[in-house]
Fold Accessory gene regulator B.
Amino acid sequence: MYYISKRLTDYILNKGVIEEKDYDIYNYGFVCFLEVTLSTVTSIIIALFLGMLRPCLFFFLIFIPMRSYGGGLHLNSYLACYIASCLILTISLLTVKYATLPLLISFLIYLVSAAFILLTGPVDHPNRSVDAYENDIFKKKTNITILFSTVISVILLFYKNNSYLMLEAIVFAFLAITLIAGKKANR
């Protein structure tokens, strides 16, 4: 990723699109863009291979905002994060595809995990300090996301949609686990 982003940044610098002083900013932007693109494309390929595109999109509807605002464990390299993310997605989708929990058990797992996330609060990363104001914003956005997902889980419970409720429970269980791991790793 770094090699490709450096080449792209060098190219636009040589074409006069950016100035030398902005080089690092654009290089970082290209790295982020390439990493997100690779992760997204890989996730879609996994979902298509498993025949589970809609559940994958539902997974990301819940996982991305919660992970963005709630924090959790951050691995030391993009490759480690990429592999872990692919594994979490694959395990979640395969579990929903081949296993079934009773509807109320899925709902209970979701509720316990969501409550734990609310009580734990956002987890900071040592490489990016967060002040009290930002932490309050992250807490509010986490709470809004949990409220939104709770409404979804109640609707899924009402309509007896066990596979999506179970997927939501699995996602929240993974999120709670990464919060625990993140708190322990950042001590």
